[in-house]
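Entry for the shared binder. Reason: the reviewer on the internal report wants the predicted structure included alongside the sequence.
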Amino acid sequence: MQQAKFLINQIVWSSRYEGWLATFLKIFMKGFKSLRIPIPYEHILKKWIDHQFDSRFNVDTFGIVEVENLDISKDQKREAVEYAPTPATFGIILSSMQLDFSEYVFVDMGSGKGKVLFMASSFPFSEIIGVEISETLCQSAGKNINRFKSSFQNCFNLNVICSDAKSFTIPEDRLVLYFYNPFSEKIMKDVLNSICLSLNKKPRSIFIIYYNPQHKSVIESTGKFIPFEIDGWNDPMWNIYHSV
């Protein structure tokens, strides 16, 4: 029953972000893979599906930006990770958390071209903030914010701050923080230290959503966060935590 609920949720959010045709293609491709049936033109189909978000919302978030192509210093490049857009699964995660989003500020640490900001805007956060170290990516995100149009948009207070994450001042609001493995373990420790200091100063509800959790031990070792369970959700690529 729970699996059926998640399947329906996945279809709903995928169709919102990528359209019905792309959604059905993804379902058929997943079915073919489970049966180990080769998928003709799989690479072309995946690329077409990945482009649908941008086509629907008149933005440019597609593609990977390698670290060597980022306009940051050599020292910063050693701690950085390539830019890649977040999958539509993100919408399922947020909707399943069942929060009063109007009481929370959403922050994407390493926001790139802004795709997650636009997906998060489907929920009525009080504010949505992207933190990005690359000035070029910040400019791209700013242009995308000006162009983004969606009938599902429920938050219109979107901002991008051009800053490295460890220098970013953690807002004193209730927070939902998003990380898509944006930087090295060293920077992750610095950022978590800032978050924990902010929590000590003002105890409050803070959620962390961590996709591709390469450095999850950094979060778990703080003693400030515990895993947040969503019934029926067991994808190891997504870790969710809540402040103690």
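Summary line for the report: The longest helix spans residues 2-18.
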